[in-house]
Amino acid sequence: MGGKKPGFGKQLGDLHRWNAWITVILAVTGLLLAWDVVRGWLNGEARNPIKQLHIALGVLSAVLIVLYTPLMRRHLKQIRQRPRQKGNLAFVLVLLVGWFLSGIVLWQLRLFPPVWANAALLVHDLLTWVAVPYLVFHSVTRIRWMKQPERRAIKTAPAASPESSDPDRRRPYEEPAPWINRRQFLKWSIGAVIAVTAAPPFFRWLAKAGSGFTSTRDVMGTDANPNMMLPDPVPLPDSVNVIGGGAQGYFRPYTVTRFPKFDSNSWSFTVNGLVDNPGKWNWEQFLALSRAVQVSDFHCVTGWSVYKNTWEGIPLSALLQQAGVKPNARFVKFYSGDGVYTDAISLEQAGMKDVMVAVLHDGNPIHRDYGGPVRLIVPAMYAYKSVKWLERIELVEEEHIGYWEVRGYDNDAWIKA
Ligand SMILES: Nc1nc2c(c(=O)[nH]1)N[C@H]1C(S)=C(S)[C@@H](COP(=O)(O)O)O[C@H]1N2
Ligand SMILES: [Mo]
Protein backbone atom coordinates (compact mmCIF):
# COMPACT_ATOMS: atom_id res chain seq x y z
CA MET A 1 0.00 0.00 0.00
CA GLY A 2 3.04 2.31 -0.13
CA GLY A 3 1.42 5.48 -1.52
CA LYS A 4 3.57 8.51 -2.15
CA LYS A 5 1.42 10.94 -0.19
CA PRO A 6 1.50 10.03 3.46
CA GLY A 7 -1.91 8.91 4.58
CA PHE A 8 -3.16 7.35 1.36
CA GLY A 9 -2.18 3.84 2.34
CA LYS A 10 -3.64 4.30 5.77
CA GLN A 11 -6.89 5.66 4.35
CA LEU A 12 -7.21 2.64 2.09
CA GLY A 13 -6.32 0.32 4.93
CA ASP A 14 -8.91 1.87 7.22
CA LEU A 15 -11.60 1.59 4.55
CA HIS A 16 -10.67 -2.01 3.94
CA ARG A 17 -10.84 -2.85 7.61
CA TRP A 18 -14.19 -1.14 8.16
CA ASN A 19 -15.60 -2.73 5.07
CA ALA A 20 -14.40 -6.14 6.17
CA TRP A 21 -16.00 -5.96 9.61
CA ILE A 22 -19.24 -4.46 8.38
CA THR A 23 -19.48 -7.14 5.72
CA VAL A 24 -18.93 -9.85 8.31
CA ILE A 25 -21.76 -8.52 10.49
CA LEU A 26 -23.98 -8.07 7.42
CA ALA A 27 -23.34 -11.66 6.42
CA VAL A 28 -24.13 -12.98 9.90
CA THR A 29 -27.30 -10.90 10.35
CA GLY A 30 -28.38 -11.65 6.77
CA LEU A 31 -27.97 -15.38 7.26
CA LEU A 32 -29.91 -15.18 10.53
CA LEU A 33 -32.76 -13.48 8.68
CA ALA A 34 -32.80 -15.76 5.66
CA TRP A 35 -31.98 -19.23 6.86
CA ASP A 36 -34.93 -21.56 7.45
CA VAL A 37 -33.20 -23.42 10.23
CA VAL A 38 -32.38 -20.27 12.17
CA ARG A 39 -35.80 -18.76 11.53
CA GLY A 40 -37.11 -21.46 13.83
CA TRP A 41 -34.96 -20.63 16.84
CA LEU A 42 -35.07 -16.87 16.39
CA ASN A 43 -38.34 -15.99 17.95
CA GLY A 44 -40.33 -13.06 16.67
CA GLU A 45 -38.74 -10.65 19.12
CA ALA A 46 -35.29 -10.92 17.60
CA ARG A 47 -36.21 -10.65 13.95
CA ASN A 48 -37.00 -6.96 13.66
CA PRO A 49 -33.98 -5.65 15.61
CA ILE A 50 -31.72 -7.89 13.51
CA LYS A 51 -33.34 -6.60 10.35
CA GLN A 52 -32.90 -2.98 11.46
CA LEU A 53 -29.25 -3.61 12.24
CA HIS A 54 -28.76 -5.27 8.87
CA ILE A 55 -30.31 -2.28 7.07
CA ALA A 56 -28.28 0.27 9.05
CA LEU A 57 -25.04 -1.55 8.29
CA GLY A 58 -26.03 -1.81 4.63
CA VAL A 59 -26.36 1.95 4.50
CA LEU A 60 -23.04 2.33 6.29
CA SER A 61 -21.38 0.08 3.77
CA ALA A 62 -22.66 2.33 0.98
CA VAL A 63 -21.11 5.29 2.80
CA LEU A 64 -17.78 3.49 2.67
CA ILE A 65 -18.08 3.14 -1.10
CA VAL A 66 -18.75 6.85 -1.34
CA LEU A 67 -15.66 7.54 0.76
CA TYR A 68 -13.65 5.22 -1.46
CA THR A 69 -14.55 6.83 -4.81
CA PRO A 70 -12.14 9.77 -4.50
CA LEU A 71 -9.32 7.32 -3.70
CA MET A 72 -10.22 4.90 -6.44
CA ARG A 73 -8.21 6.45 -9.28
CA ARG A 74 -5.02 6.40 -7.38
CA HIS A 75 -5.70 2.95 -6.01
CA LEU A 76 -6.26 1.62 -9.54
CA LYS A 77 -2.98 3.13 -10.68
CA GLN A 78 -1.24 1.51 -7.78
CA ILE A 79 -2.52 -1.96 -8.57
CA ARG A 80 -2.24 -1.60 -12.34
CA GLN A 81 0.30 -4.37 -12.50
CA ARG A 82 -1.56 -6.71 -10.15
CA PRO A 83 -4.33 -8.53 -11.97
CA ARG A 84 -5.31 -10.49 -8.88
CA GLN A 85 -5.87 -7.41 -6.80
CA LYS A 86 -7.72 -5.75 -9.63
CA GLY A 87 -9.96 -8.80 -9.96
CA ASN A 88 -10.60 -8.81 -6.24
CA LEU A 89 -11.45 -5.12 -6.25
CA ALA A 90 -13.86 -5.44 -9.18
CA PHE A 91 -15.55 -8.43 -7.58
CA VAL A 92 -15.96 -6.72 -4.22
CA LEU A 93 -17.33 -3.54 -5.82
CA VAL A 94 -19.85 -5.47 -7.92
CA LEU A 95 -20.91 -7.35 -4.80
CA LEU A 96 -21.34 -4.29 -2.64
CA VAL A 97 -23.25 -2.34 -5.27
CA GLY A 98 -25.45 -5.35 -6.14
CA TRP A 99 -26.19 -6.04 -2.49
CA PHE A 100 -26.91 -2.38 -1.90
CA LEU A 101 -29.32 -1.89 -4.81
CA SER A 102 -31.24 -5.11 -4.22
CA GLY A 103 -31.18 -4.34 -0.50
CA ILE A 104 -32.87 -0.99 -1.08
CA VAL A 105 -35.73 -2.71 -2.90
CA LEU A 106 -36.08 -5.32 -0.14
CA TRP A 107 -35.95 -2.63 2.52
CA GLN A 108 -38.57 -0.46 0.79
CA LEU A 109 -40.43 -3.48 -0.53
CA ARG A 110 -43.86 -1.97 -0.24
CA LEU A 111 -43.01 0.77 -2.73
CA PHE A 112 -42.41 -1.80 -5.46
CA PRO A 113 -44.58 -4.35 -7.23
CA PRO A 114 -43.90 -7.93 -6.08
CA VAL A 115 -41.92 -8.93 -9.19
CA TRP A 116 -39.33 -6.31 -8.27
CA ALA A 117 -39.10 -7.73 -4.78
CA ASN A 118 -38.75 -11.25 -6.22
CA ALA A 119 -35.90 -10.12 -8.49
CA ALA A 120 -34.20 -8.21 -5.67
CA LEU A 121 -34.39 -11.22 -3.37
CA LEU A 122 -32.92 -13.46 -6.07
CA VAL A 123 -30.01 -11.07 -6.66
CA HIS A 124 -29.44 -10.56 -2.93
CA ASP A 125 -29.41 -14.32 -2.32
CA LEU A 126 -27.30 -15.16 -5.36
CA LEU A 127 -24.63 -12.61 -4.44
CA THR A 128 -24.60 -13.96 -0.89
CA TRP A 129 -24.17 -17.52 -2.06
CA VAL A 130 -21.24 -16.57 -4.26
CA ALA A 131 -19.70 -14.04 -1.92
CA VAL A 132 -19.73 -15.65 1.49
CA PRO A 133 -17.48 -18.60 0.56
CA TYR A 134 -15.21 -16.25 -1.37
CA LEU A 135 -14.98 -13.79 1.51
CA VAL A 136 -14.28 -16.53 4.04
CA PHE A 137 -11.46 -17.78 1.84
CA HIS A 138 -10.21 -14.24 1.24
CA SER A 139 -10.14 -13.42 4.95
CA VAL A 140 -8.62 -16.65 6.15
CA THR A 141 -5.85 -16.50 3.60
CA ARG A 142 -5.16 -12.89 4.60
CA ILE A 143 -4.31 -13.87 8.13
CA ARG A 144 -0.70 -12.89 8.46
CA TRP A 145 0.57 -16.38 9.14
CA MET A 146 -0.98 -17.63 5.92
CA LYS A 147 0.98 -15.26 3.76
CA GLN A 148 4.21 -16.00 2.02
CA PRO A 149 7.09 -15.36 4.42
CA GLU A 150 8.62 -12.64 2.21
CA ARG A 151 5.36 -10.72 2.08
CA ARG A 152 4.80 -11.01 5.78
CA ALA A 153 8.23 -9.61 6.33
CA ILE A 154 7.54 -6.53 4.26
CA LYS A 155 4.30 -5.85 6.06
CA THR A 156 5.42 -6.42 9.57
CA ALA A 157 8.82 -4.84 9.55
CA PRO A 158 8.45 -1.12 9.06
CA ALA A 159 11.35 -0.54 11.42
CA ALA A 160 13.79 -2.50 9.33
CA SER A 161 15.99 -0.15 7.42
CA PRO A 162 17.65 -1.18 4.14
CA GLU A 163 20.70 0.89 5.13
CA SER A 164 21.21 -1.05 8.28
CA SER A 165 24.56 -2.70 8.50
CA ASP A 166 23.11 -5.54 10.49
CA PRO A 167 21.93 -8.17 7.97
CA ASP A 168 19.50 -9.60 10.50
CA ARG A 169 17.71 -6.30 10.72
CA ARG A 170 17.63 -5.84 6.97
CA ARG A 171 15.71 -9.03 6.35
CA PRO A 172 14.13 -9.64 9.69
CA TYR A 173 11.67 -12.41 8.93
CA GLU A 174 13.49 -14.56 6.48
CA GLU A 175 12.86 -18.20 7.10
CA PRO A 176 14.29 -21.29 5.56
CA ALA A 177 12.36 -22.28 2.44
CA PRO A 178 9.34 -24.27 3.61
CA TRP A 179 9.14 -27.90 2.62
CA ILE A 180 6.19 -28.37 0.23
CA ASN A 181 4.88 -24.88 0.95
CA ARG A 182 2.70 -25.53 3.94
CA ARG A 183 0.71 -22.32 3.66
CA GLN A 184 -0.19 -22.83 0.05
CA PHE A 185 -1.38 -26.28 0.97
CA LEU A 186 -3.49 -24.91 3.82
CA LYS A 187 -5.00 -22.20 1.64
CA TRP A 188 -6.12 -24.69 -0.92
CA SER A 189 -7.46 -27.05 1.70
CA ILE A 190 -9.57 -24.26 3.14
CA GLY A 191 -10.79 -23.41 -0.32
CA ALA A 192 -11.69 -27.04 -0.94
CA VAL A 193 -13.54 -27.39 2.37
CA ILE A 194 -15.57 -24.27 1.64
CA ALA A 195 -16.34 -25.44 -1.88
CA VAL A 196 -17.45 -28.87 -0.72
CA THR A 197 -19.66 -27.56 2.09
CA ALA A 198 -21.16 -24.60 0.20
CA ALA A 199 -21.71 -26.19 -3.20
CA PRO A 200 -24.52 -28.70 -2.55
CA PRO A 201 -26.89 -26.26 -0.81
CA PHE A 202 -26.02 -23.66 -3.43
CA PHE A 203 -27.04 -25.92 -6.29
CA ARG A 204 -30.17 -26.98 -4.47
CA TRP A 205 -31.04 -23.32 -4.02
CA LEU A 206 -30.21 -22.56 -7.66
CA ALA A 207 -32.42 -25.38 -8.90
CA LYS A 208 -35.32 -24.04 -6.84
CA ALA A 209 -34.76 -20.41 -7.73
CA GLY A 210 -34.40 -21.22 -11.39
CA SER A 211 -37.46 -23.38 -11.83
CA GLY A 212 -40.56 -21.30 -12.40
CA PHE A 213 -43.03 -24.13 -12.57
CA THR A 214 -43.34 -26.74 -9.88
CA SER A 215 -45.77 -29.50 -9.21
CA THR A 216 -48.15 -29.31 -6.29
CA ARG A 217 -46.25 -32.03 -4.48
CA ASP A 218 -43.10 -29.97 -4.65
CA VAL A 219 -44.85 -26.76 -3.75
CA MET A 220 -46.41 -28.22 -0.65
CA GLY A 221 -43.54 -30.47 0.29
CA THR A 222 -43.00 -34.07 -0.65
CA ASP A 223 -43.25 -35.46 2.87
CA ALA A 224 -46.38 -37.23 3.92
CA ASN A 225 -48.72 -34.80 5.60
CA PRO A 226 -48.23 -35.07 9.38
CA ASN A 227 -51.84 -34.00 10.02
CA MET A 228 -54.35 -36.79 10.61
CA MET A 229 -57.44 -35.39 8.95
CA LEU A 230 -60.11 -37.85 7.86
CA PRO A 231 -61.97 -37.92 5.62
CA ASP A 232 -59.96 -36.24 2.90
CA PRO A 233 -61.70 -33.18 1.54
CA VAL A 234 -62.98 -34.04 -1.92
CA PRO A 235 -61.96 -31.29 -4.33
CA LEU A 236 -64.32 -29.49 -6.67
CA PRO A 237 -63.77 -30.27 -10.34
CA ASP A 238 -62.22 -26.87 -11.03
CA SER A 239 -59.82 -27.30 -8.20
CA VAL A 240 -58.82 -30.78 -9.34
CA ASN A 241 -58.04 -29.48 -12.79
CA VAL A 242 -55.82 -26.82 -11.26
CA ILE A 243 -56.74 -23.72 -13.17
CA GLY A 244 -53.83 -22.12 -14.99
CA GLY A 245 -51.50 -25.10 -14.76
CA GLY A 246 -50.76 -25.06 -11.05
CA ALA A 247 -48.80 -22.89 -8.64
CA GLN A 248 -45.53 -21.37 -9.77
CA GLY A 249 -42.84 -20.92 -7.16
CA TYR A 250 -42.05 -22.23 -3.70
CA PHE A 251 -43.63 -21.51 -0.37
CA ARG A 252 -41.18 -21.14 2.47
CA PRO A 253 -42.65 -22.81 5.52
CA TYR A 254 -42.93 -20.21 8.29
CA THR A 255 -43.93 -20.67 11.88
CA VAL A 256 -43.33 -18.80 15.10
CA THR A 257 -43.84 -21.91 17.23
CA ARG A 258 -42.97 -25.53 16.75
CA PHE A 259 -45.06 -26.86 13.88
CA PRO A 260 -48.42 -27.84 15.38
CA LYS A 261 -50.12 -31.04 14.29
CA PHE A 262 -53.84 -31.73 13.96
CA ASP A 263 -56.15 -34.69 14.19
CA SER A 264 -59.70 -34.74 12.86
CA ASN A 265 -60.89 -36.33 16.12
CA SER A 266 -60.01 -33.24 18.13
CA TRP A 267 -59.95 -30.46 15.51
CA SER A 268 -62.72 -27.91 15.47
CA PHE A 269 -63.47 -24.60 13.84
CA THR A 270 -65.22 -21.73 15.60
CA VAL A 271 -66.84 -18.46 14.57
CA ASN A 272 -67.87 -16.33 17.55
CA GLY A 273 -67.65 -12.93 19.18
CA LEU A 274 -70.05 -10.22 18.04
CA VAL A 275 -72.32 -12.47 15.97
CA ASP A 276 -75.94 -13.55 16.24
CA ASN A 277 -75.28 -17.23 15.47
CA PRO A 278 -71.93 -18.42 16.77
CA GLY A 279 -70.86 -21.65 15.10
CA LYS A 280 -68.62 -24.58 15.86
CA TRP A 281 -67.87 -27.36 13.39
CA ASN A 282 -65.95 -30.58 13.56
CA TRP A 283 -63.95 -31.66 10.53
CA GLU A 284 -66.74 -33.58 8.88
CA GLN A 285 -69.24 -30.77 9.38
CA PHE A 286 -66.71 -28.25 8.19
CA LEU A 287 -66.13 -30.19 4.97
CA ALA A 288 -69.87 -30.12 4.32
CA LEU A 289 -69.86 -26.30 4.02
CA SER A 290 -70.10 -25.20 0.44
CA ARG A 291 -66.78 -24.19 -1.10
CA ALA A 292 -65.54 -21.97 -3.90
CA VAL A 293 -62.38 -21.98 -6.05
CA GLN A 294 -60.05 -19.10 -6.83
CA VAL A 295 -56.68 -18.62 -8.49
CA SER A 296 -54.49 -16.00 -6.82
CA ASP A 297 -50.91 -14.95 -6.17
CA PHE A 298 -49.31 -15.15 -2.75
CA HIS A 299 -46.66 -12.63 -1.67
CA CYS A 300 -44.48 -12.69 1.43
CA VAL A 301 -43.23 -9.34 2.66
CA THR A 302 -39.65 -10.69 2.61
CA GLY A 303 -39.68 -10.79 -1.19
CA TRP A 304 -40.74 -14.26 -2.32
CA SER A 305 -43.98 -15.07 -4.12
CA VAL A 306 -45.94 -18.07 -5.35
CA TYR A 307 -48.04 -17.31 -8.38
CA LYS A 308 -51.28 -18.83 -9.67
CA ASN A 309 -52.31 -20.85 -6.64
CA THR A 310 -55.60 -22.64 -7.03
CA TRP A 311 -57.26 -22.42 -3.62
CA GLU A 312 -60.47 -24.11 -2.72
CA GLY A 313 -62.30 -23.17 0.45
CA ILE A 314 -65.08 -21.25 2.10
CA PRO A 315 -65.27 -17.56 1.26
CA LEU A 316 -64.94 -15.61 4.49
CA SER A 317 -67.92 -13.48 3.51
CA ALA A 318 -70.11 -16.60 3.41
CA LEU A 319 -69.05 -17.60 6.93
CA LEU A 320 -69.70 -14.10 8.21
CA GLN A 321 -73.07 -13.90 6.54
CA GLN A 322 -74.13 -17.19 8.07
CA ALA A 323 -72.92 -16.00 11.48
CA GLY A 324 -74.88 -12.74 11.33
CA VAL A 325 -72.41 -10.00 12.22
CA LYS A 326 -73.69 -7.63 14.89
CA PRO A 327 -73.73 -3.90 14.06
CA ASN A 328 -71.09 -3.01 16.64
CA ALA A 329 -68.50 -5.43 15.20
CA ARG A 330 -65.69 -3.60 13.36
CA PHE A 331 -62.84 -6.07 12.99
CA VAL A 332 -62.39 -9.75 12.22
CA LYS A 333 -59.76 -11.46 14.32
CA PHE A 334 -58.13 -14.75 13.31
CA TYR A 335 -56.62 -17.28 15.70
CA SER A 336 -54.10 -19.89 14.69
CA GLY A 337 -54.22 -23.36 16.17
CA ASP A 338 -50.53 -22.91 17.05
CA GLY A 339 -51.88 -21.01 20.05
CA VAL A 340 -49.74 -17.92 19.44
CA TYR A 341 -50.26 -16.38 16.03
CA THR A 342 -53.18 -14.03 15.46
CA ASP A 343 -54.06 -11.32 12.99
CA ALA A 344 -57.00 -9.15 12.05
CA ILE A 345 -58.52 -7.18 9.20
CA SER A 346 -61.36 -4.68 9.19
CA LEU A 347 -64.87 -5.84 8.53
CA GLU A 348 -64.80 -3.90 5.29
CA GLN A 349 -61.62 -5.68 4.15
CA ALA A 350 -63.16 -8.98 5.15
CA GLY A 351 -65.86 -8.31 2.57
CA MET A 352 -63.41 -8.74 -0.34
CA LYS A 353 -64.57 -11.66 -2.45
CA ASP A 354 -61.20 -13.45 -2.51
CA VAL A 355 -60.63 -13.63 1.25
CA MET A 356 -60.89 -17.35 1.77
CA VAL A 357 -60.73 -19.98 4.47
CA ALA A 358 -58.83 -22.48 2.33
CA VAL A 359 -58.89 -26.25 2.60
CA LEU A 360 -57.24 -27.34 -0.67
CA HIS A 361 -54.30 -26.04 -2.66
CA ASP A 362 -54.02 -27.10 -6.30
CA GLY A 363 -56.55 -29.84 -5.58
CA ASN A 364 -54.68 -31.35 -2.61
CA PRO A 365 -55.22 -31.02 1.15
CA ILE A 366 -52.99 -28.26 2.50
CA HIS A 367 -49.86 -29.77 4.00
CA ARG A 368 -49.35 -29.23 7.73
CA ASP A 369 -46.15 -27.21 7.16
CA TYR A 370 -48.07 -24.74 5.01
CA GLY A 371 -51.00 -24.15 7.36
CA GLY A 372 -53.19 -27.22 6.80
CA PRO A 373 -55.81 -28.43 7.43
CA VAL A 374 -57.25 -24.92 7.10
CA ARG A 375 -55.56 -21.60 6.46
CA LEU A 376 -56.68 -18.09 5.73
CA ILE A 377 -55.87 -16.50 2.35
CA VAL A 378 -55.95 -12.73 1.85
CA PRO A 379 -54.54 -12.34 -1.68
CA ALA A 380 -54.62 -8.53 -1.76
CA MET A 381 -52.35 -8.28 1.28
CA TYR A 382 -48.90 -9.51 2.27
CA ALA A 383 -49.08 -13.04 3.52
CA TYR A 384 -48.56 -12.32 7.20
CA LYS A 385 -52.32 -11.69 7.17
CA SER A 386 -52.87 -15.23 5.84
CA VAL A 387 -53.03 -16.99 9.18
CA LYS A 388 -51.96 -20.66 9.08
CA TRP A 389 -53.74 -23.43 11.01
CA LEU A 390 -56.78 -21.19 11.30
CA GLU A 391 -59.28 -22.53 13.83
CA ARG A 392 -61.15 -19.57 15.20
CA ILE A 393 -62.64 -16.37 13.83
CA GLU A 394 -63.84 -13.75 16.28
CA LEU A 395 -65.79 -10.60 15.48
CA VAL A 396 -64.57 -7.74 17.67
CA GLU A 397 -65.12 -4.05 18.14
CA GLU A 398 -61.58 -2.96 19.01
CA GLU A 399 -58.79 -3.09 16.47
CA HIS A 400 -56.42 -6.02 17.08
CA ILE A 401 -52.73 -5.76 16.20
CA GLY A 402 -51.42 -9.10 14.90
CA TYR A 403 -48.34 -11.12 15.80
CA TRP A 404 -45.91 -9.62 13.27
CA GLU A 405 -47.47 -6.19 13.36
CA VAL A 406 -46.64 -5.98 17.07
CA ARG A 407 -43.06 -6.84 16.09
CA GLY A 408 -42.53 -4.24 13.41
CA TYR A 409 -44.60 -5.15 10.34
CA ASP A 410 -47.02 -2.55 9.05
CA ASN A 411 -50.64 -3.14 10.05
CA ASP A 412 -51.49 -1.86 6.56
CA ALA A 413 -50.51 -4.90 4.49
CA TRP A 414 -51.90 -3.90 1.10
CA ILE A 415 -49.79 -5.00 -1.84
CA LYS A 416 -49.02 -2.40 -4.49
CA ALA A 417 -50.68 -3.44 -7.72
N1 LIG B 1 -49.78 -19.34 12.29
C1 LIG B 1 -48.94 -18.70 11.46
N2 LIG B 1 -49.42 -18.16 10.32
C2 LIG B 1 -48.61 -17.50 9.46
C3 LIG B 1 -47.23 -17.37 9.74
C4 LIG B 1 -46.74 -17.95 10.94
O1 LIG B 1 -45.54 -17.89 11.25
N3 LIG B 1 -47.62 -18.62 11.77
N4 LIG B 1 -46.40 -16.67 8.88
C5 LIG B 1 -47.07 -15.74 7.94
C6 LIG B 1 -46.17 -15.29 6.90
S1 LIG B 1 -45.14 -13.99 7.27
C7 LIG B 1 -46.18 -15.83 5.65
S2 LIG B 1 -45.20 -15.25 4.41
C8 LIG B 1 -47.02 -16.98 5.34
C9 LIG B 1 -46.12 -18.13 4.91
O2 LIG B 1 -46.89 -19.21 4.52
P1 LIG B 1 -46.16 -20.62 4.34
O3 LIG B 1 -45.49 -20.95 5.64
O4 LIG B 1 -47.22 -21.55 3.95
O5 LIG B 1 -45.13 -20.44 3.26
O6 LIG B 1 -47.81 -17.41 6.44
C10 LIG B 1 -48.27 -16.40 7.31
N5 LIG B 1 -49.11 -16.99 8.31
MO1 LIG C 1 -44.16 -13.36 5.23
Automatic annotation (TrEMBL):
Residues 259-404 form the Oxidoreductase molybdopterin-binding domain. InterPro entries: Di-haem_cyt_TM, OxRdtase_Mopterin-bd_dom, OxRdtase_Mopterin-bd_sf. SUPFAM superfamilies: Oxidoreductase molybdopterin-binding domain (SSF56524), Transmembrane di-heme cytochromes (SSF81342). Pfam families: Oxidored_molyb. The keyword Aminoacyl-tRNA synthetase does not apply. Keywords: Membrane, Transmembrane, Transmembrane helix. Residues 154-174 are annotated as: Disordered. The chain crosses the membrane at residues 20-38, 50-68, 89-109, 115-137, 185-207. This is Oxidoreductase.
